[in-house]
Amino acid sequence: MSTTSDHTTTAVPGIDGRLRLLLIEDDPGDAFLVEELLADSGLDVEILHARTLGEARRRMSARIHCVLADMSLPDAGGLDLLREVLSLTERAAVVVLTGLADAHLGVRAVALGAEDYLVKGEVDGPLLARAIRYAIERKRAEESERRLVEARIVGRENARLERGLLPVPLIDDASLHHHARYRPGRRRALLGGDFYDTVQTADGAVHLMIGDVCGHGPDEAALGVCMRMAWRTLVLAGHTGGHLLATLNTVLGHERRSDELFTTVCTLTVDPSRRTARMHLAGHPPPLLLAGDEVIAGPEEPAGPALGLPTELVDQSAWPAAEIELTDAWGLLLYTDGLIEGRIGQGSARLGTEGLVALAREARRTGVAGGALIDALVAEVESLNGEELTDDVAVLLLSNQEQERP
Predict the structure, then answer these.
(1) 8-31 pLDDT, tens per residue?
(2) Which carries the bigger pLDDT value, residue 182 or residue 236?
(3) Which long-range contacts (CB under 8 A, 24 or more apart) does 25-33 make?
(4) How far is it, in rounded angstroms, from Cα 176 to Cα 153?
(5) Do 359 and 251 belong to one domain?
(6) CA-based diameter of the chain, in Å?
(7) Lower CB count within 10 Å: N or C terminus of the chain?
(8) Who has greater pLDDT, 154 or 241?
(9) What is the mean pLDDT of the chain?
(10) 106 and 181 assigned to the same domain
(11) What CATH number corresponds to the domain at position 257?
C-alpha cells in the first residue's frame, strides 16, 4: 500500500525526492489513519505497509528512510518486536507508534535504539510528520557521529603504524637535505606495501633504502614495516651490500604469509667523502641522479633478483654492487614503481623511467628542488595518468647543500 500527498511538499533535509516510509501495522484502520495524517501534513511520502514482522522483513530495503512500527503484531510484540525491527535497519530511523501509553516502556524503547515513541490518539498530522523528520535527522546525525568515531579510531591506529612505516631519518650531517613522500594506492588508506629508510652510521656513511612489497593491503604494509626495521637494525649493526640483502631475503622467507610474495629493494650507501655512492638493486628500478639541472637514470646493471627466492638458491653474490660517481652538487632520488607505472593519456603506454627523467629535468630547469620537486613529480604523473595512481608510491630524495635551490 502506498500513498502520495496532494498537498504542499515539506522538504526533508538531506533527502533527495520523496521520503520512503515502512509502516508496520496490523490494524487496517490505524494504517489508514496514519496515511490520512501524513497526507494532511503536506509531507511528500511514499508508504509501504507491512502487517506482520515477516512481511516487514521482506519489504525492508536500503531505500527506506524511516520505519513507523506498532509494538503489537500477530507474530511478535513488545520490546522483542522492537529489537527485531532495529536489527532489520541500518540507516533507517525507527519510530514507535503504539496504543500503549506507557512512559517507562517509551524510555526503554528509546534506550534500545528507537528515535521516538509516540502514542496513537495523541498525535496529529503535523506532529507525526515533524517526529518523522526529526527522527531521520537524528539517525543521520548518529550515523555521521559513528563514522567519525570509527574514522578517528582507524586514524589513530594507522598513525601508530605509520610511525613504523614512515620513519624519522637518522642523519647527523647539516650539509645533507632529506625529503620523502608516501602515497598509498588503496582508497582512503594511509598504509601500503612500500617502505623506505635513511640511516647515517658512525663512520659518516649515509645508507638509503627503498622497497616495495608486491600488493598494497594491510598485510603488505605490516611486512613492509618488518623489512624496514630489519634493514635499519642490520645497517646499525654494520651490515651492508649483498650480505645485508641475503639476510633480508631470509627474513622475508620467515615473515611472509605466502611463498609467492616478493619484495623489490634498492639500497644506496653514500661514502663519507660524499663523492661516491654504492648501489645494490634487487629487482627494483634504479634511482635518478641529479647534478645541477641535469637528471639521469642510475645504472640498471649490475642487478640482482627481487627478494623472495628460497635461501638455498641465492647468496650474497646474487646482488652485486654498482659504483656511482657524485658531482659537487648532487641528488639521489629513489622511488617505487608506482611512480612510473601510471598511464600516459588514454592509451596503454606507461610513463617508465625515461618519462620520469624527462619530468624531473623539466622541473629542475624551472628551479624546483627538495620536497617541492617530489610533489611536482607526483602531481604531473597523476595528471598524465588522468586520475590518482592506483599503486602505492614512495619517493625519497637525498641531496647535498649545493643541490638545494629556492
Answers:
(1) 334 444 455 689 999 999 999 999
(2) 236
(3) 25/49, 25/50, 25/51, 25/68, 25/69, 25/70, 25/97, 26/51, 26/52, 26/70, 26/72, 26/73, 26/74, 27/70, 30/70, 30/120, 31/1
(4) 37
(5) yes
(6) 93
(7) C
(8) 241
(9) 86
(10) no
(11) 3.60.40.10
The CA angle 62-64-65, to the nearest 5 degrees, is 115
305: domain range? 166-403
* Sign of the CA dihedral running 80, 83, 88, 92: positive
In this structure, are 208 and 347 located in the same domain?
Answer: yes
In which residue are the cell numbers 526503554 written?
A: 108
Answer for the pair 376, 363: CB distance below 8 angstroms, yes or no: yes
Q: Does 6 score more than 50 pLDDT?
A: no
Structural domain includes residue 85 = yes
CATH number at residue 137: 3.40.50.2300
Tell me what the mean pLDDT of segment 141-167 comes to: 73
186 plus 141 within the same structural domain: no
Question: How many structural domains are present in the chain?
Answer: 2
141 and 248 co-located in one domain: no
Helix axes 125-165, 28-41, angle to 10 degrees: 80
Rounded CA gap, 401 and 108, in Å? Answer: 69
Residue recorded with cell 656513511: 205
What does the block give as the cell for 121? 490518539
Q: Please state the φ and ψ torsions of residue 111, each to the nearest 5 degrees.
A: -65, -30
3-state secondary structure 274-296: CCEEEEEEEECCCCEEEECCEEE
Cβ atoms 294, 331 nearer than 8 A: no
Of 114, 146, 178, the domain-final residue: 146
| Residue 257 banded pLDDT, cuts 50, 70, 90 | confident
Residue 89 carries which DSSP code? -
- Run of H or E including 157: helix 125-165
- How far apart (Å, rounded) are the C-alpha atoms in residues 327 and 156? 43
Listed residue (169, 176, 175) closest to 196, CA to CA = 169
Question: Looking at residue 8, what is its pLDDT?
Answer: 38
For the stretch 56-77, pLDDT in tens is 999 998 889 999 999 889 998 8
Pinpoint the alpha helices (H) of 166-263: 218-236, 241-255
pLDDT at site 4: 35
263-270: strand order across its sheet: 194-200, 206-213, 263-270, 276-282, 322-325
